[in-house]
Amino acid sequence: MQRKRALPALAALALVGGAAPVAALPDDPLAPLFAADQGDTRAAILVEDGKVIAKRYAPGYSDANRFISWSTAKTMTAMLVGELVSDGRLQLDAPAPIAEWHRPGDPRSGITLRQLLNMASGLKHTEVGKPIEASDTNQVLFASGTANMAARAIAQPLEARPGEKFEYSSLTTIILAEIVTRTLTDSRDPKTRATAYRDFAFERLYKPAGATGAFLEFDSAGTQIGGSVIHLTLDDFAAMGALLLDGKGQHGEQVIAPDWLAFMKTPSPTNPVYGGQTWLNRFAADGKGPAIASMNGHLGQYVLTFRGLGRDGKPHAYVLVRLGNTREDKLDVVEHAAGRIAAQLVPAN
């Protein structure tokens, strides 16, 4: 159900020769995202070097609203994993610390943290199946697996050797959130587990980024639903995008370690447009244009981060956020609109 591909419409823009910097953006640069063909766009923001240069809501929405993350949460979960790696409490290439996989003869014992982050664990997870209601993600999030989501995700057998193939999976990110929780506390009490995770997330991520309106949801076992369900304001989404750009918080402090951020933005061995729980795209058809690192979510949640030439012709860093409720089969036009906005701010090839 989550948006599980890169943004081909953005890359396609380069087929017409790229874009030169413009002297000035339109009065309303976000207007293309609110056109009639965009479905239900609810909010959008464009930030340049930390300054909001355009912000717009659909009628009925405002700064008072939080919006659901859907799969943009995956990138945030990866950031928290990175904090524990930086602390020396987790190791990227060590077997994932899931006790259930480390019983004698269990082939899942070889799954590494890197493979989980790259969506290449080999676990038998079905993100979108037929019929749709039978998909693992739908069953765990909304039906038979809601009480203990991580247990359902962890219990799945292998369908491929770890590291062999890419398979996008919200359940994989729930396992990552569970690893964070188990690293923070040995308690099995749901409230204690949820509190430990929430406190750590705000101390190490949301407060430094300035995303203090974030609201995290947990299942009945106290596991954060890290693949899909975090609620944030529009400004909070922009703040998390700024963190994805260079790892720095609202006051310029380094929040995400540079080497972890580099890992998140490095193409994985099994998918060149996916890194560590982060989508990777390029404007140029030859793959040499400005890189876009993005958080993509179900129904058209996009947090695009990139560097380009601004209105003054000088290099700048950008965050472009689009939030809404648009059917998956209608999202190509949304991507084209986002691409047209971003293409005004990247250098010609």
Task: Provide a descriptive summary of the structure in words.
With 349 residues, the protein is α+β, with helices and mostly antiparallel strands. A hairpin with a 3-residue loop joins strand 7 and strand 8. Helix 2 (72-86) packs parallel to helix 6 (170-184). A 6-stranded antiparallel sheet has the order 2-1-9-8-7-6. The chain is globular. It has helices at residues 8-12, 72-86, 113-117, 136-142, 149-155, 170-184, 190-209, 234-246, 258-264, 331-343, and strands at 40-48, 51-57, 67-68, 215-216, 230-232, 279-282, 291-297, 301-309, 315-325. It is 31% helix and 15% strand.
Write the layout of secondary structure elements.
Elements: H1 8-12, E1 40-48, E2 51-57, E3 67-68, H2 72-86, H3 113-117, H4 136-142, H5 149-155, H6 170-184, H7 190-209, E4 215-216, E5 230-232, H8 234-246, H9 258-264, E6 279-282, E7 291-297, E8 301-309, E9 315-325, H10 331-343
Antiparallel strand pairs: 1-2, 1-9, 3-5, 4-5, 6-7, 7-8, 8-9
Helix pairs in contact: 2-6, 2-7, 5-6, 6-7
